[in-house]
Structures are given as C-alpha cells and as structure tokens.
Design goal:
Layout lengths: L6 E9 L5 H11 L3 E13 L2 E7 L2 H14 L4 E4 L5 H14 L4 E4 L14 H11 L5 E2 L3 H8 L6 H13 L4 E4 L8 E8 L2 E8 L9 H14 L4 H17 L15 H7 L1
Parallel strand pairs: 1-2, 1-4, 4-5, 5-6
Antiparallel strand pairs: 2-3, 7-8, 8-9
Helix pairs in contact: 1-7, 2-3, 3-4, 5-6, 7-8
Length: 270
C-alpha cells in the first residue's frame, strides 16, 4: 500500500544548473507532497545553454544507492531518468527486479537534453526498450524519444497513439506520449494503459523556459502515484503542476531556462 508521504526513489543524473535531472525531480516530488530519494547516475556540467561535460558515477555506487535506500526507507514509486550506458540500464533493471519487483516504475527515457545534447548511446536505447519498458507502470517519452523507441513516426496525434500502442505491445502497462515537440497552438499528450486511452490538451505557452520539463512531469506523476492516485489522475494533476511551473518561469539563464518548480508556494503566499 502507498505510504502517507509517497516515497519516490529517483535514479537519474545531476544537473548543475538545477533545472533538470535529480534537482528538478526532488523539487517536483517535494512540491507535490512526496518524499524524494536519489541514486545519482552521472554528474553533468550543465547550464541553460547546454551540457558541457558528463562524468558517469561508478556502477557500484549507483547500485549501492539503490540498495540502501530501498532497504532502509523503502519506496512507493521509482522514477528513472538519465541512464547513459547499456551496462547501467541492464544493471538498474536487474536491481529493480530483485529489490523492487512490486514497486511502480515510471520510466522517463531521457535521451537528449533540451539544448539538443545527446545523453545516451545507441546501445543504451536498445537496453531501455528491452529491459526497462517491459513491466513499467508508465513510460513517458516525448515525440522524438517515442519515435526512437517504437520506430513509429510521431508528428501528429495519430502518430502519438500508434507509438503508445507499440509501447504497450513491448510490455509497458502504460505509455504517455507527449506532444510538446509537435508544432501547433495546442499541445496534446496521449495516455494509453491496458484499460483505456486518455487525451490531454493544453494551450502552448510561448516561452524559452522549458529546461527540465520532461524530468519535472515524470517526477510529478511519480509523486502522485506514490500517494495513491490512479495513472490518469496522476497524469492530469502532474500536467497541471507542470503547466503552472512553465507559466511562472522566471527567465533564468541565457538559454533554455528552468521552469519555476516552487510556483505553488507563491500562490499560497498571496
């Protein structure tokens, strides 16, 4: 049963700029009432302009972080993000199958940063498809990631639906194919699960403050699932949180700025 606080273990890379990666994950989980833990997979030298360097964390250290947090505190949901190599993907998948087989997994298949910098190699992509997508409670690719994972063109709503169907065929229990990379004044996100389909839409916000949006949404959903929400409820409420965070972005940095994760606190202070 989910705990009262919604414990979320985040397995992802660090973003020194604070807008994406484990920093964004922790902020989103905390703002939505959950308790965030981390297994850091890589240290990135990153700001709003791009990724300037990546230093992978030793495999033993990543697995150790997973082991001790699960053994001591436990988790109600596990969210994965940046996993740069096939070796790491396979090791994480094995660790979760042994230590967390019954815990909901939210797989954010992070492949490319908002700046366009690639964060995983080709073998890691295949490992994500074969090792992490199967048995995932929810997979949350954007349109380019969905194309890579499924081989389906994702340039419109029909493409999103076909890609989601393929992810379910690969073994995922749910797939959220996001439409932020598809042009138009309205963004559509397609959610398919083994029990149905939901299409969410929202007006596009004209902004360059989109750094970390994928990390933020996946972690928001993980926090809500960990607190007992259904997948459709968690997606809807997570999208609402992200929309507010984008709208309230403060325009930090000289490139793609971060969203404002703490916007709910601003509302409460008014």
């Amino acid at each position: 049963m989910p705990s009262e606080n919604g414990r979320v273990l985040i397995i992802s890379g660090s973003d020194s700029g604070g807008g994406a990666g484990v920093q964004a994950d922790i902020k989103a989980v905390t703002m939505l009432g959950g308790y965030a833990m981390t297994a850091v997979t890589a240290i990135t030298v990153q700001d709003t302009r791009g990724v300037h360097g990546v230093w992978p964390v030793a495999l033993e250290a990543v697995l150790g972080q997973i082991e001790v947090t699960l053994a001591d505190i436990g988790a109600d949901a596990i969210k994965t993000g940046m996993l740069g190599t096939s070796q790491l993907v396979e090791a994480v998948a094995e660790a979760l199958s042994v230590q967390a087989s019954l815990i909901a997994r939210i797989i954010d298949p992070v492949m490319v940063a908002t700046s366009g910098d690639r964060l995983v190699d080709a073998r890691a992509i295949e490992a994500i498809r074969s090792e992490l997508v199967p048995r995932a409670r929810l997979v949350t690719p954007n349109a380019p990631e969905a194309e890579v994972l499924t081989g389906k063109a994702v340039v419109n709503l029909d493409g999103q639906r076909r890609a989601a169907e393929r992810l379910l065929e690969l073994g995922a229990h749910g797939a959220l194919v996001k439409g932020g990379h598809i042009g138009g004044p309205v963004i559509h996100d397609v959610l398919q699960t083994t029990t149905g389909e939901w299409i969410f839409e929202s007006p596009r916000i004209q902004t360059t403050s989109t750094h970390g949006t994928g990390c933020t949404l996946a972690s928001a959903i993980a926090a809500l699932l960990a607190q007992g929400r259904s997948v459709p409820e968690a997606v809807e409420q997570g999208r609402d949180y992200l929309y507010g965070a984008i709208k309230a972005a403060r325009g930090l940095g000289k490139g793609h700025g971060p969203v404002h994760h703490g916007w709910l606190l601003d509302d409460r202070e008014r």
